UniProtKB/TrEMBL annotation:
SUPFAM superfamilies: P-loop containing nucleoside triphosphate hydrolases (SSF52540). CDD domains: YqeH. Gene3D superfamilies: P-loop containing nucleotide triphosphate hydrolases. Signal peptide: none annotated. This is GTPase YqeH. Pfam families: MMR_HSR1, YqeH-like_C. InterPro entries: G_CP_dom (IPR030378), GTP-bd (IPR006073), GTP-bd_ribosome_bgen_YqeH (IPR019988), Mito_lipid_metab_GTPase (IPR050896), NOA1/YqeH-like_C (IPR048422), P-loop_NTPase (IPR027417). GO terms for molecular function: GTP binding. Residues 64-227 form the CP-type G domain.
Amino acid sequence: ENEELYCIGCGAPIQSSDPKGLGYVPASAIQKNTEEEDLYCKRCFRLRHYNEVSDVALTDDDFLKILTQIGATDSLIVNVVDLFDFSGSVIPGLQRFVGNNPILIVGNKEDLLPKSLKRSKLRDWIRQSANMQGLRPVDVALISAKKNHMIDSLLKLIDKYREGRDVYVVGVTNVGKSTLINQIIKQQTGISELITTSRFPGTTLDKIEIPFDDEHSLIDTPGVIHQQQMTHFLVGKELNIAVPQKEIKPKVYQLGSGQTLFLGALARFDYLKGERKGVVVYVDNNLMIHRTKTSNAAIFYEKHAGELLQPPFAENMKNLPPLVRFEFKIAQKSDLVFAGLGWITVNADTIVAGWAPKGVAVTLRRAMI
Ligand code: GDP
């Protein structure tokens, strides 16, 4: 019977035999909770436990239903994205769904990016990256929901663009949407007026509305997990050395052809061809980075994954799928992005390979910094 249940966070089949395995839920919890919608694997539960308030993760189908309904309204769309995982936060087809409604992009977790990066440059980068995804935002705001940074200016910007209409806040899970909504609630005086409502016909979700003083409201919408992230393979303390909590200190490595970097045991970067030049690594400051010869890298990984190369820790290594290789010919300075883990900035005229656990994307983008 349990074989038919799936974690609604990561989609892994629910099992109760291997506590460290994908989709683990204690047998007692499965018995208590037989509704498929109610089941999260332990990992997703923990991931979600970092949340101050919990977001509701929807299936793609329900999420599309909601987007379609929002598209039929006359409103301002606020799309919250994670600056640390921009491509992982993009909602495919958002522009098409919301039609003529303006979209305001809110880049959250600004606190993780180096202070030296000019914010105007970052905004330009977001706008261009959004354009490449088919999004035409009316504006781009940078905030840190967690640090309560720039929330006031965001609210002013929202008020400017909503022009007396409702506001729908959309975002995939883990971008910090709940944290932002919590901050906004804290800043509003009339908390007693908060309305919970079944806003989306055809779904059973009670969502929070924060009223403006003109009959209109800001409406929170559920998130959807739409991309396999590196961090889905990690649990507990492993997350502390892979998910950055503070400003990332970029690390420069002078690499020549035939050299490899390991990012814990989660990812591998091969510098295949190019001048001896610096690559810059942007990952959690606590993540162990190891340099080795590419010719020796496979053996090195075999020997040290889970020990010298962490995370995952040794006991959790069996849950990590094998690393899969993606090769890139780089014509202009670019970021090689390991979804959810960070990125490596590489110079032009090089050939590199990025490796990530099977199912996790390695992609190339215009350099952010
Ligand atoms: P949601 O799924 O979009 O509602 O995301 P949450 O609000 O639950 O946040 C997801 C994770 O991102 C949590 O671990 C938060 O602590 C973290 N987070 C949220 N806002 C920020 C921020 O501004 N900066 C940083 N560094 N982390 C944040």
